[in-house]
TrEMBL record:
Pfam families: Aconitase, Aconitase_2_N, Aconitase_B_N. This is Bifunctional aconitate hydratase 2/2-methylisocitrate dehydratase. One of its GO terms (molecular function) is aconitate hydratase activity. One of its GO terms (biological process) is tricarboxylic acid cycle. InterPro entries: Acnase/IPM_dHydase_lsu_aba_1/3, Acoase/IPM_deHydtase_lsu_aba, Aconitase/3IPM_dehydase_swvl, Aconitase/IPM_isomerase, Aconitase_4Fe-4S_dom, Aconitase_B_HEAT-like_dom, Aconitase_B_HEAT-like_dom_sf, Aconitase_B_swivel. Residues 6-162 form the Aconitase B HEAT-like domain. Residues 181-407 form the Aconitase B swivel domain. Keywords: Iron, Iron-sulfur, Lyase, Metal-binding. GO terms for cellular component: cytosol.
Length: 925
């Protein structure tokens, strides 16, 4: 928005959508607004004042820079605005969070006007978003004998910016709202199809509950009936926030139910309260902490036990649940932050101390985790400058060390990368640790929010601690529409300027890459001791330990090179037996979930834990199929334990793929990609020489649980079924309903097949080509009775398939091949019964661009089966997305139905599927 006239035109357009003016982030527009404020006779002066005061984004936006300078003029008397006194100008600066505002405050503090200096210092003492350039100015002034600089630094050392904040209310009254029964996907709170609007918070807020106006109105009515209470959003008989971190989901919940972060910054709310019978999905809970919210594990339904302590099951073998207390919509409850318990009136319902740990209480008090992270950093600077020990203001980091107990793989990684812990102390699970981050990934539908978060925390460059950051273009790859054209180039320029390697170069210096981010991160993670943070729940690499995160946590990792979290407990997964020759590794992945649930009477022991999978013999390409799926297992993260030779092979593959990126011209000025090649070579040398073998846990490490998967029991393909018509609504759309192929009797109609997403690798594409040749040889021709959409994960895979001849096979049978010189501008609404070779990227799995036709039954290799994600419901039929291996998907599309075992075995005859044999070597030390 370049001119005021354009802005007014946009405001009128937004009015028709029931929206307020969009917050201002551009310097040109705000400069014009300031000119109109200065002109007392200007017809737009009153509106301009309002826009300036209440509708300008803070942080490092170009508008914030213009605003801060004008406020400085007012404070110094260089400009006089009757409505904005110097005192009010200081108040405005105090809400601008850093960057230009801190620069102005430092100018005023260190200036010659003593009265102004004292007032500026008061404000500066409340600020936490200071960077090296800011603290260096303070230190130089302190070293030169500045009294005011000394006063500020002493205040910082005592963390008065935190200690002088209002205390948390002892009692927080909430009124409940059941948002759904069963697991609630973040798609309900922020649908993938609305990804384009996430950075426009008010507009995006309209998609809450998947645009269900009835639910939105119920929520508004509840707020009106209880104006003095907070609304607690609940997943009854389920887990809240499964599927992805989705900062936009938390933003929407906060927008509808939370508290305004500042009277001068619109549509940015904080402190939502959410809950679930089975708690909050791990990465979504982290996102809640970013906003200073509260996430509660209700446990209001429990399994019934018989006299012998065995779980009581119904006629379907499902555990019988009993309600221990009601949280029906409209129930008034009290969160007591002192006793850390949940009450209904005087009746105690539940201990909620895990939701109100000392660290989480600090997030609540500070209005979010960012302020705490930056506050600790600022306090450390101040104490070091003064030459004193850091005063104990914040809650002590929880350090759990158990003598004589070995370490799991994740405990080893956290101990290696931890900062600020007691020197020489070995930490075990449960410890709360700051760790340095090696790789950070930002994806394109949350990247715009990440860029906003970086601006609001006044960050301008990636932390030197980070080996490399990568900005993808995969979630908007399939359709290059007007929304993408408006958003993605702007995002790529911001991230490229910030110091990331970007999928698109702002000046088009290399071919735009739409590779799936998880595949790229899996390649650029070149050390099994690395910590990786990525803006997507499927950031789960097969080397190192990777955590999916919200856009804010990604921004924090980019800006500081650190992440803070408890060391999670681990669940050890090992294998025995042998895979059948006609089974694919995807079947092993699904069988792992099924066998785990059977072994633990339906309890998901993976939820919130690290899955330490002793994969041994699979390279990271293939092993990623397992680690990727651990998001659907509700795990916090996963770690692969590999044999030395296997890890070397994985690192060599990664190194060579990074070199391809370099050869394409994708390296940044700091040559981060070259640094990763060097790091990979060093790690390979360490393993080959025995200096530092592949990461392995200690033999005496302690696990939350141990799961042994029997490969002999996997005798037919396994399918994750959303069970859309289950009478128990809470059992629908979970990933825990795993069925064998024979369950469908070869008769279930399939309307569309999808081979793609992060769950496939090059081997899957070769399997597809070989199956088509097989079927033609057996039947004389290949006829598709349902559309088959194929989206390779990366361009590298396409290039390799072309070199090896497999791409030509796929083209022969296809009716559509993507063309980068003329990318699609419109999403498909209809599919013909043929093979579509789509552009590399997420495609159907993301649900924000391409979708199956409403009511379709989809068989897919992807990860998402949530309602409305891949396919919407039709009026007469629920859409359903069944998840399975590549061979099952391909055959289902050709047949137009699920295959029988006989048909399946014939179709894969002679084809080498993804093989897996348990390691015969010792994978512990």
């Amino acid at each position: 928005m370049n001119t005021y006239k354009d802005y007014i035109r946009e405001i009128e357009e937004r009015k028709s959508q029931g929206l307020h003016p969009k917050p201002i982030d551009g310097a040109e527009l705000l400069s014009e607004i300031i000119s109109q404020i200065k002109d007392k006779n200007n017809e737009h002066r009153e509106d301009s004042l309002s826009f300036f005061i209440y509708n300008t984004l803070p942080g490092t936006t170009s508008a914030a820079s213009v605003k801060a300078k004008f406020l400085k003029e007012i404070i110094l008397g260089e400009s006089v605005v009757e409505e904005i006194t110097p005192a009010f100008a200081f108040e405005q600066l105090s809400h601008m969070k850093g960057g230009p505002s801190v620069e102005v405050l430092l100018d005023l503090t260190l200036g010659n006007d003593e009265a102004v200096s004292q007032e500026a210092a008061k404000v500066l003492k409340t600020q936490v978003f200071l960077y090296e350039a800011d603290t260096e100015r303070l230190k130089l002034a302190y070293d030169a004998g500045s009294v005011v600089a000394k006063d500020i630094i002493e205040s910082y050392a005592q963390a008065e910016f935190f200690t002088k904040l209002p205390e948390i209310d002892e009692e927080i009254e909430v009124v409940t709202y059941i948002a759904g029964v069963g697991d609630i996907s973040t798609d309900l709170l922020s649908p993938g199809a609305d990804a384009h609007s996430r950075s426009d918070r008010e507009l995006h807020g309209q998609c809450m509950f998947e645009h269900n106006k009835d639910m939105q109105n119920e929520l508004l009515a509840l707020k009106e009936q209880h104006p003095d209470k907070r609304v607690m959003l609940i997943a009854e008989k389920g887990t809240m926030g499964v599927g992805s971190s989705r900062m936009s989901g938390v933003n929407n919940v906060a927008l509808w139910t939370g508290i305004s972060s500042s009277p001068y910054v619109p549509f940015i709310n904080i402190a939502p309260v959410i809950a679930g019978t089975n708690g909050i999905a791990p990465i979504f809970l982290t996102t809640v902490g970013v906003t200073g919210g509260i996430g509660i594990d209700l446990k209001n339904w429990v399994k019934q036990k018989d006299a012998d302590g065995n779980t009581v099951v119904d006629e379907n073998g499902e555990p019988v649940l009993k309600q221990t207390y009601s949280v029906d919509t409209g129930t008034v409850l009290t969160i007591n932050t002192k006793t850390k318990k949940l009450y209904n009136g005087d009746k105690e319902l539940k201990d909620i101390s895990t939701a109100l740990t000392p660290q989480k209480m600090e997030f609540i008090k500070a209005g979010g985790s960012y302020a705490v992270v930056f506050g600790k950093k600022l306090q450390t600077f101040a104490a070091k400058t003064l030459g004193i020990d850091v005063p104990q203001v914040y809650a002590e980091s929880k350090e759990i060390s158990i003598e004589g107990q070995g370490l799991t793989a994740v405990e080893k990684i956290f101990n290696k990368n931890a900062v600020g812990t007691t020197p020489g102390k070995t930490l075990h699970a449960g410890s709360n640790v700051r760790v340095e981050v090696n790789i950070v990934g930002s994806q394109d539908t949350t990247g715009l929010m990440t860029s906003q978060e970086l601006e609001m925390m006044a960050a301008t460059v990636i932390s030197p601690i980070v080996d490399a950051g990568y900005q993808s273009g995969c979630h908007t790859a399939s359709v290059w529409d007007d929304k993408s054209k408006a958003n993605i180039p702007r995002l790529m320029k911001f991230m490229n300027d910030f110091g990331l390697v970007t999928a698109r170069h702002p000046e088009g210096k290399y071919h735009a890459m739409t590779d799936v981010i998880h595949k790229v991160l899996n390649d650029i993670a070149v050390d099994d001791w690395d910590v990786i943070i990525g803006g997507d729940s499927h950031t789960r690499m097969a080397k190192g330990v990777a955590f999916g995160a919200d856009s804010g946590t990604v921004a924090l990792a980019l800006a500081t090179g650190e992440a803070t979290m408890p060391i999670p407990q681990s669940v050890k997964v090992t294998f025995k037996g042998n895979m059948k020759s006609y089974m694919d590794f995807r079947d092993v992945v699904h069988a792992t979930q099924e066998q785990m649930l059977n072994q633990f009477e339906g309890e998901n022991v993976f939820q919130g834990k690290i899955i330490e999978v002793h994969i041994g013999t699979l390279t990271s390409d293939q092993a990623f199929t397992f680690t990727d799926w651990t998001a659907e297992m509700k795990a916090k993260a996963s770690i692969c334990i590999s044999e030395d030779d296997t890890l070397i092979e994985s690192l060599e593959i990664s190194r060579d793929r990074i070199q391809i990126m370099i050869d394409k011209g994708m390296d940044n000025p700091k040559l981060d990609l070259k640094g990763l090649v060097d790091k990979a070579n060093n790690r390979i040398t360490e393993i080959k020489t025995g200096t530092k073998p592949a990461l392995k846990p200690d033999a005496d490490a302690k696990y939350y649980a141990e799961v042994v998967i029997d490969l002999d029991k996997i005798v037919e393909p396994m399918i994750a079924d959303p069970d859309v018509n289950n009478e128990d609504v809470s059992k629908r759309y979970t990933h825990d309903n795993i069925q064998p192929l024979s369950f469908y009797g070869g008769t279930k109609k399939v309307d569309l097949g999808f081979v793609g997403s992060c769950m496939i690798h090059k081997g899957d594409m070769k399997i597809l080509a070989q199956m088509l040749k097989n079927i033609e040889a057996q039947q004389g021709e290949v006829n598709f009775n349902a559309p088959l959409v194929v989206a390779p994960p990366t361009y590298n895979i396409v290039d390799e398939l072309k070199a090896e001849g497999d791409w030509d096979v796929l083209v022969k049978y296809s009716g559509f091949e993507f063309d980068d010189s003329a990318p699609k501008g419109l999403a498909r609404t209809k599919y013909e019964n043929m093979l579509y070779l789509e552009r590399p990227g997420c495609n159907l799995c993301m649900g924000n661009q391409e979708k199956a036709e409403p009511g379709d039954t989809v068989m897919a290799t992807s990860t998402r089966l949530f309602q409305g994600r891949v396919v919407r419901d039709a009026d007469d039929k629920k859409g359903e997305s069944l998840l399975s291996s590549t061979p099952v998907v391909v055959l289902s599309a050709i047949l137009g139905r699920t295959p029988t075992m006989e048909e399946y075995e014939a179709a894969v005859d002679g084809i080498i599927l993804t093989k897996f044999k348990p390691s015969q070597k010792q994978l512990v030390v």
